[in-house]
Automatic annotation (TrEMBL):
Nucleotide-binding in keyword set: no
Predominant localisation class: membrane
UniProt keyword NAD present: no
Protein name: G-protein coupled receptors family 1 profile domain-containing protein
Molecular functions (GO terms): G protein-coupled receptor activity; olfactory receptor activity
SUPFAM superfamilies to which the protein is assigned, alphabetical: Family A G protein-coupled receptor-like
BP GO annotations: cellular response to lipid
InterPro entries for this protein: GPCR_Rhodpsn, GPCR_Rhodpsn_7TM, Olfact_rcpt, OR51/52/56-like
Originating organism: Sarcophilus harrisii
Pfam families with a match to the protein in the record: 7tm_4
Domain G-protein coupled receptors family 1 profile, chain residue ranges per copy: 45-296
Length: 320
């Protein structure tokens, strides 16, 4: 019968084809070098922050422990996308195995959820530092910081855990061409040849439980911070208190602006060009790991000093 013939032709895909930047395929050779440089900044920058906080005893305080967690999440995000991005732009290799794609998707969404949770923890840290400066050390002890870190990790791992299994049960036998240089849940889901209502619903619940609640928690934290800052009598005191939040505000904007942009484009931007989709997705995953170390290096003199020491030591070694 015709239905039987159709069923025989419905061969499930064992791999997906990744897309680089549509319309710029001829420029990949020239884009490979800056892309490698961007990844080098992300990996070196976050690596320096982690090693500085580990080696400098003066930085063994909650604020910098949370910064270390943020750098680890950024490092994870960068390393998740590195193989497929460099594979496309350096070697023109676009094929990724189905299971490898699910693994990459899992880690991208997990590290993204970890980063979101860490930004909430950093906001809480700033609330405690500004509202209760005298009790800061007793409220945010090393034990409390460890428990917060464990809670952030557990939440991210558990919330994203069902997603690959929900994708695995779907049939894929029509198109297997993804619209990005890496695997994202929304992107894989749209290629399925069956109802994706359960996936969409779970994806929405997961986003509300992680990034939705996190963004509200950060806004609430800053409402507390502003009310406290406005009650400070001296203008100099207000500026000093707000200055301690500048780096964190930048980190929040660096993470949430591309995230909101890519979410809006996925939901309402189906009429937009594939180039817009690709650039927004790349910004969502590459901007935080690259810019966060730059922001915190500019604002933290201990980290600046460590970088200067590294480069001056190398210079002396080269001269000798």
């Amino acid at each position: 019968s015709r239905d039987h013939t159709n069923n025989e032709l419905q061969i499930w895909h064992l791999h997906f084809v990744l897309t680089g930047i549509p319309g710029l395929e001829k420029e990949y050779y020239w884009m490979a070098l800056p892309l490698g440089f961007i990844y080098a900044i992300a990996i070196l920058g976050n690596g320096i922050i982690i090693s500085t906080i580990k080696s400098e005893a003066s930085l063994h305080i909650p604020m910098y422990y949370f910064l270390c967690m943020l750098a680890l999440a950024d490092l994870g995000l960068a390393l998740c996308t590195l193989p497929s991005m460099l594979g496309i732009f350096w070697f023109d290799y676009k094929v990724i195995a189905f299971d490898a794609c699910l693994v990459q998707m899992y880690f991208i969404h997990t590290f993204s959820a970890i980063e979101s949770g860490v930004l909430v923890a950093m906001a809480f840290d700033r609330v405690v530092a500004i509202r209760n400066p005298l009790r800061y050390g007793t409220i945010l002890t090393s034990g409390v910081v460890c428990r917060i870190g464990a809670a952030i990790l557990t939440r991210a791992v558990c919330v994203v855990f069902p997603v690959p299994f929900l994708i695995k049960r779907l049939p894929f036998y029509r198109s297997n061409i993804l619209s990005h240089s890496f695997c994202l849940h929304q992107d894989i889901m749209r290629l399925a040849c069956a109802s994706t209502r359960v996936n969409s619903l779970y994806g929405l619940i997961a986003v509300i439980f992680t990034k939705g609640s996190d963004s509200l928690s950060i806004l609430l934290s800053y409402a507390f911070i502003l009310s406290t800052v406005l009650s400070i009598a001296s203008g100099e005191g207000r500026l000093k208190a707000l200055n301690t939040c500048v780096s964190h505000i930048c980190a929040v904007l660096i993470f949430y602006v591309p995230l909101i942009g890519v979410s809006v484009i996925h939901r309402f931007g189906k009429h937009l060009s594939p180039l817009t989709h690709a650039l927004m997705a790349n910004a969502y995953l590459l901007v935080p790991p690259v810019l966060n170390p730059i922001v915190y290096t500019v604002k933290t003199k201990e980290i600046r000093r460590k970088i200067i020491q590294i480069f001056t030591r190398r210079k002396i070694t080269v001269q000798v």
